[in-house]
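Before going further, learn to read the protein records used in this course. The integers have meaning only within a learned vocabulary of local backbone shapes. The record below shows the convention in full.
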Amino acid sequence: MIKSKKLSKFRYLEHGFFNRRGGESIGIFKSLNCGPGSSDSKKNVLKNIKIVSKKINNKSKKIVLLNQIHSNNFHFINKNLKTPSNKLTGDALITNKKNTAIGILTADCAPILLHDETNKMIAAIHAGWKGAYKGIIEKVIKFMIKEGCSPKNITAVIGPCISVNSYQVRQNFIKKFMQQSKKNKVFFKKIRDKNYFNLNKYIYFQIKRLKIKKIDIIKKDTFITKNNFFSARRSISHNESDYGRNISVIMIN
């Protein structure tokens, strides 16, 4: 479990970015696969989620997850509402409810955890290039501000994701971003006639643009085998039939 130094100073918060170590799954899902959408044994996935719950001192042993669709849709779990029992569809969760763990699943995309220290509100965002491009980050932060949060009180943590040196893209990918804004040129680099995209940097600038100054970046490339994360790109390059999902979780005690 990897923790953010900036979030760790809040004693009433529990959080963690988990890689593939320490679970019950076997084979290509070895071992802490927390993705119910994978073809892994559902029994093992549930066991893995319970392991994560224990690590973050979540007594309910339940983590609210999403049916993630690379969208800009989010859900707010109000402290006055019952925690949803059915899986919601979207790519971000926001809550001000105590003892309610919210999580995001990734396999190269970026997990983002947010926390407002005055309003005691948290969020977990699944930000691949599609979600980030569609404005999921801006939508979540603007909603938090509308609910009384302030950019000066928000801490944002960008978790482990695929790094620029591992994220090769085609020309039509670059064209799409350049049509959005000519300024997006800074998120691409060329290495030996091949183009690469900096997802981390793209997300960082989106957060910074919203006047949030407390930003932490966990610099771990999910594609590199030695870092022990599940990676969709790596699995595809190895012709594997499926891949596990890394989980990132946050909760207010």
Remarks:
- The radius of gyration is 17 Å.
- The longest strand covers residues 110-116.
- The helical segments are 5-8, 42-55, 129-134, 136-146, 171-180, 199-209, 232-237.
- Residues 5-163+198-252 form a domain with the CNF1/YfiH-like putative cysteine hydrolases fold (CATH 3.60.140.10).
